[in-house]
Design brief:
Organism: Jatropha curcas
CATH superfamily of the largest domain: P-loop containing nucleotide triphosphate hydrolases
Strand content: 15-25%
CATH class of the largest domain: Alpha Beta
Number of helices: 16
Structural class: alpha/beta
Bound molecules: adenosine-5'-triphosphate, magnesium ion
Low-confidence stretches: 188-195, 312-328, 334-344, 494-501, 509-513
Keywords: ATP-binding, Hydrolase, Magnesium, Membrane, Nucleotide-binding, Transmembrane, Transmembrane helix
CATH architecture of the largest domain: 3-Layer(aba) Sandwich
Distance between the termini: 129 Å
Mean pLDDT: 79
Protein name: AAA+ ATPase domain-containing protein
GO molecular function: ATP binding; ATP hydrolysis activity
Oligomer: single chain
CATH topology of the largest domain: Rossmann fold
Family: Belongs to the AAA ATPase family. BCS1 subfamily.
Length: 513
């Protein structure tokens, strides 16, 4: 009897290949000619059959959900969690600059697969992406996602304990590793479906802290406590039914440390900063989109809110108030540095801004501070700064002796000096901003020592004192008063002649009468 020899390896491969090819051919014909209903029915049941024999469960976590409004927090957390694991075992990695630009953070590259173990259970993570169908105007978008695979016997443990653990750990790793960012809204921006975000950013590296801020110690402590209490009040805010956000209004003359304080706040709380340029925002809809794209643990800043848009009088303005407008124009001319910007392109309204601060959308994200700064608090619409919107009003004022001591310690490493007494005496009489004090304490040449810098400051204070004595202070006492329906302005002029102060009261009738 002739026994057929066993098939060789190459014969086996050829047989398998031709079987698969025939199966694929039949499947293609089936898909082509089989009616859609029958095909759907069969596909549905073949899926069920497969899942009956296939013992694994898959969970996908997509980068963007819904209408791509914001990046999924779960995705970011998984990404951070896997960065630790994948840096040990994945073969293709992505590298990104980490905190303080001192190290590289590695994470798994696309289509890479890593395994993880939790309570003795093995799971697999794959990073992947699909291309969304292209829309006429915009290029195709990549939709990234992570897929977790595990055995169905461990469903309870994985969904109940492992996934929450991954998210918790991932969030902590993100806070540890992340570089804080300073965002700005760039003008001329189109829509998020074209570009992924409406904000551009750089690394936030401002060195200001509350230790270096020249401020009375009690005031400083009060602000720090307020901020720290806010960060720990998540449960409190949800209990009282309020969005977890807080508004700060920083006001005071130029050079008193408003911008510096924002940097100190961000450094204290480890928050990102979103510097919102209102004049570059097209309309209220765009303002809302910008808000949605901000992340939690951040400070949204609108600097010089009185100059950003003409929001000051929108609620009160009436056609008949032309005279008051003229007066306002005159006032604005007196303030050359803070001229109102031309707002032809921005259609953001006061009500849009009010909604931005505490409308329904403002609650998304949570744990955010909104900070306004202004030099002219009295020019703002009261609705904009009422408590609830701007919860804490902080006045930053001229340099006190206590504040000077902080600057002397920072700039000259001095805690006490015989010249301090003279400076303290002068500061009681003279208004000088911390910015001016800081400038005088700055050594101007390598030979300048602490004594020279203090002498510079005393000289500057003396000069200011003389200038203030000579100057005629024009102090506006009341505005928008009327006589018989006509607007007038009451002013007191204080003149110093031969060291004697004299007060003159003056009524000004408007030119349009
Ligand atoms: N309170 C302060 N503590 C420490 N430094 C200060 C303080 N105020 C001002 N300075 C110094 O003065 C400079 C200007 O301050 P800053 O920009 O914070 O003032 P501002 O109040 O924001 O002024 P503006 O109203 O013109 O925007 C800062 O670089 C900082 O060095
Ligand atoms: Mg400023």
């Amino acid at each position: 009897m002739i026994v057929a020899p066993p098939p060789t390896m190459s014969e086996m491969w050829a047989t398998m290949g031709s079987t698969i090819a025939s199966f694929m051919f039949l499947w293609a014909i089936f898909r082509q000619y089989c009616p859609y209903e029958i095909r759907r029915y069969m596909e549905k049941y073949s899926q069920r059959m497969m899942s009956f024999f296939y013992p694994y469960i898959k969970i996908s976590i997509h980068e963007y959900t819904g209408e791509r409004l914001r990046r999924s927090e779960a995705y970011s957390a998984v990404e951070a969690y896997l960065s630790v694991n994948s840096s040990k075992c994945a073969k293709r990695l992505k590298a990104e600059m980490g905190r303080d630009c001192s190290n590289l953070i590695l994470s798994m590259d696309e289509y890479e697969r890593v395994t993880d173990e939790f309570q003795g259970i093995r799971v697999w993570w794959v990073s992947s992406k699909v291309l969304s169908p292209s829309q006429s105007m915009y290029p195709q978008q990549e939709k990234r996602y992570y897929k977790l695979t595990f055995h169905k016997n461990h469903r309870e443990i994985i969904t109940g304990a492992y996934l929450p653990y991954v998210v918790r750990e991932g969030k902590e790793i993100r806070v540890r590793n992340r570089q804080r960012k300073l965002y700005t809204n760039s003008p001329g921006y189109k829509w998020p479906s074209y570009k992924q975000t409406m904000w551009s950013h750089i690394v936030f590296e401002h060195p200001a802290t509350f230790d270096t801020m020249a401020l009375e110690p009690e005031k400083k402590q009060e602000i720090i406590e307020d901020l720290v209490t806010f960060t720990k009040s998540k449960d409190f805010y949800s209990r009282i039914g309020k969005a977890w956000k807080r508004g700060y209004l920083l006001y005071g003359p130029p050079g008193t440390g408003k911008s510096t304080m924002i940097a100190a706040m961000a450094n204290l709380l480890n928050y990102d900063v979103y510097d919102l340029e209102l004049t570059a925002v097209k309309d209220n809809t765009e303002l809302r989109k910008l808000l949605i794209e901000t992340t939690s643990k951040s400070i949204i800043v609108i600097e010089d809110i009185d100059c950003s848009l003409d929001l000051t009088g929108q609620r009160k303005k009436k056609a008949a108030d032309k005279c008051l407008d003229d007066e306002k124009d005159k006032l604005e001319k007196e303030i050359p540095r803070k001229e109102l910007k031309e707002e032809a392109s921005s259609k953001v309204t006061l009500s849009g801004l009010l909604n931005f601060i505490d409308g329904l959308w403002s609650a998304c994200g949570g744990e955010r501070l909104i900070v306004f700064t202004t030099n002219y608090v009295e020019k703002l619409d009261p609705a904009l700064i009422r408590r609830g919107r701007m919860d804490k009003h902080i006045q930053l004022s001229y340099c006190s002796f206590e504040a000077f001591k902080v600057l002397a310690k920072n700039y000259l490493k001095l805690e006490a000096h015989p010249m301090f007494e003279i400076i303290g005496g002068l500061m009681k009489e003279i208004k000088i901003t911390p910015a001016d004090v800081a400038e005088n304490l700055m050594p101007k040449s390598p030979l300048d020592n602490a004594d020279k810098c203090l002498l510079n400051l005393i000289q500057a204070l003396e000069e200011t004192k003389e200038a203030q004595a000579l100057k005629t202070d024009k102090e506006q006492v009341a505005d928008n008063e009327t006589i018989a329906g006509y607007p007038i302005k009451v002013a007191v002029h204080q003149a110093r002649e031969n060291g004697e102060a004299e007060n003159h009261c003056e009524l000004e009738l408007h030119s349009c009468i």
